[in-house]
Amino acid sequence: MATVVHSKKSCAVNPLKMSQPIGSALAYMGINNCMPLFHGSQGCTSFGLVLFVRHFKEAIPLQTTAMSEVATVLGGLDNVEQAILTIAAKQKPSIIGISSTGVTETKGDDVDGYIKLIREKHPELDHIALVYVSTPDFKDAFQDGWAKTVTKMIEQLVKPVPVDAVRNLKKVNILPGAHLTPGDLDELRDILDAFGLEAAFMPDLSGSLDGHVPQDFTPTTIGGITLEEIASLGFSGHTIAIGEQMRDAAVALEKLTHVPFTLFDRLTGLGVSDQLIALCAKLSGNAVPNKIRRQRSQLVDAMLDGHFYFGGKKIAIGAEPDLLWALGNWFTELGAEIFAAVTTTASPLLERMATEEVLIGDLEDLEAKAATCDLLVTHSHGRQAAERLKIPFYRIGIPMFDRLGAAHQTIVGYRGTRDLVFEIANMFIADAHEAHTDTWYPAMRQQEQVGVAAEAH
């Protein structure tokens, strides 16, 4: 059991946390033909836009209501209305996803009321879905914004289904947490395909931000789950939620449609991957395919080969709670010790971490705790700390702007876990100091040198 401690500093010196609106916008980007819209100043939107462009290396659709000082004081109805009308006319989206920011939340704008007035005044917008989520950036964090947005979209866009409705038992809804990459979603889709199951991801970043080159340019999101597919989620046979952050969304979907759900708090590791495969076999009624069995055998062999390099290593991790939980448990299963754990927001998982203390703080706190560690694990903003500490640095999470392929980083299932074992073990191997004659029996050699020096005197 870990003790959860909140940092008492007056400010974040080297921020670890990404804000709620950014998490919310990313969730919208998993919906096909969507335009995310920040209700706030242009600076708030510019920051999020630059962060996503640097991370995904793709064109990112993100608009703003461009609130000025005067508009913020008087209220943002006109700005919201003009933004929606402009987006509808120029970008022609199927859905506009609106996220609040700190400045409009402080003012207290009633955006739900604004949308009702806009609907009454502009019936030509009836074919466009408008979803608003309250995501002030002065509280909570990235995964909270994502989770709230997915839950709100389910509540507004999914068609209610009676308990006795006819369902497609081969179709499985998957509610992925914000910590899963498009590569993770592709891996999960391959696993379900192997069992003859159809996966419906909500949201689906693997269709929109997986780094493909589209045939035609569109100013809205390219790919992802459609509104029609979201509406029909209630006709699936089962729901898989990944990450504690997705519990509310899974409960909301079950309440609307009576589709039962299974929540996995992580999918990185041997045991949890076994549980996923067992569930897929149960849902499909099929035996585990040979290629899945071979992938499991490869992971077991990788763990046997790699555990020599993990044993006794001290790890420092800075990440969102669900990602911290997934990585922390995986490291301890391989014999490493979570010596420093820093996260961004509260979660019921934190007290169950296999470490003495989990700090809700920033990267300065992580650096102070990681001085004697063997590996630093966080997003790209931790690179300077790793350089100062002179320890290996593994990049994971958002943002990752100084390496290519962030969208394809995969750590779920047998194959994802296997590759993670190899990648981290190779970092330890590369950092090891090769033994040579000058390092053999250092204490004995030092005594000999002292004796020689004494004889010389």
UniProtKB/TrEMBL annotation:
Residues 19-428 form the Nitrogenase/oxidoreductase component domain. Coiled coil: none annotated. Keywords: Nitrogen fixation. Pathway: Cofactor biosynthesis; Fe-Mo cofactor biosynthesis. Transmembrane segments: none annotated. One of its GO terms (molecular function) is nitrogenase activity. Signal peptide: none annotated. Gene3D superfamilies: 6.10.250.1090, Nitrogenase molybdenum iron protein domain. SUPFAM superfamilies: Helical backbone' metal receptor. Pfam families: Oxidored_nitro. One of its GO terms (biological process) is protein-containing complex assembly. This protein may play a role in the biosynthesis of the prosthetic group of nitrogenase (FeMo cofactor). Belongs to the NifD/NifK/NifE/NifN family. This is Nitrogenase iron-molybdenum cofactor biosynthesis protein NifN. It comes from Methyloglobulus morosus KoM1. The lineage of its organism: Bacteria, Pseudomonadati, Pseudomonadota, Gammaproteobacteria, Methylococcales.
